[in-house]
Amino acid sequence: MTTKASATLAKFFADKNIAKTYSSAERATSPPARALLLQAGLHSPGDGSYEILDNACGTGVVTMALIQAFKGKEEQLKVVCGDFSPRMVEAVKERISQVDGLQAEARELNGQAMEIEQNRFTHVLTNFGFQSFPEPLSGLRESIRVAKPGGTVGMTNWITAGWVPAFRLAVSRIPGAPSPLQDPLPFMTRTNRFFDVAWTRQQLEAIPEVDPTTIQIEEHTFVTTLKSEAEISELVTPMEGMLSVFTSDWSEEEQKACGEGRLLESIKQAVREEPDLVWKSLITTVRKRA
């Protein structure tokens, strides 16, 4: 990831309203989180204890799904919610404090260099975190390091976010904007190709601690329909802080053509015309060698 893009992401996640802004994304990130728990064998917990890291936890989507899965078995569950954004951590602390009987803590955590001992967690789960990491493969290796021998590491990564077709259409309608846009979009490939099954498998197989026979990569697809202007704004408004990341490969003239709210309004119009958004992601799980 470029220095400019990394700085923009850091600024975005440091914003005082980031938790409120990001919570609107839960409509998109919750279904894959539940699919991740299913694939990781956590949808119906058995006997024994579970200590789980909700890595790059954001607003705590994975933890909320875990609470539902362990309903009536809360004593078997311990959760650490980690995120590098202090604002996110504070929001998650407040959220988990309202759940009776939950053994959980939220803490600032650099997913690429965790201050956590190795071989600790039964499960390390990262829901749409790695694609915003400056060095996502370092994050993946760290997840495997802190998992117990025989433990499960799981992650979700977008193949196509539901807003991408609207983004493409919106850009195509603005005079002076880049045309045609590359496929995949450049910001998706700066540091990784976690949307690609073969590439993801290759990276996992290259890590000595991974048991390659346990690699499971499945595609997950669902549709959301935006039925009102409020729902459209809820989707598009948080994108404003990310536009400089999405457009960092564009020329100054191209960025200027899409500035002053023109791109955001064009995206909203594209969603009005096609309110059914298709979200595709890869659900990946693997076990650490015992």
In words, what does this structure look like?
The longest helix has 14 residues, at 26-39. Helix 7 (164-172) packs across helix 12. The protein has helices at 3-14, 18-23, 26-39, 61-69, 86-97, 136-146, 164-172, 197-205, 229-236, 243-246, 252-257, 262-273, and strands at residues 50-55, 77-83, 103-108, 121-127, 147-160, 210-225, 276-288. Helix content is 39%, strand content 24%. With 290 residues, the chain is an alpha/beta fold. It starts with a helix and ends with a strand. The protein has a seven-stranded mixed beta sheet, with helices on both faces. Strand 2 (77-83), helix 5 and strand 3 (103-108) form a beta-alpha-beta unit. It contains twelve helices and seven strands. Pfam families: Ubie_methyltran. InterPro entries: SAM-dependent_MTases_sf.
Structural class: alpha/beta
Rg of Cα set: 19 Å
Number of helices: 12
Mean pLDDT figure: 90
The tally of beta strands, per DSSP, is 7
Helix share, percent: 25-40%
Which strand order spans the largest sheet, edge to edge or round the barrel? 3-2-1-4-5-7-6
Low-pLDDT parts are none
Indicate the overall shape.
globular
Keywords: Methyltransferase, Transferase
Protein name: Methyltransferase required for the conversion of demethylmenaquinol (DMKH2) to menaquinol (MKH2)
GO molecular function, one term: methyltransferase activity
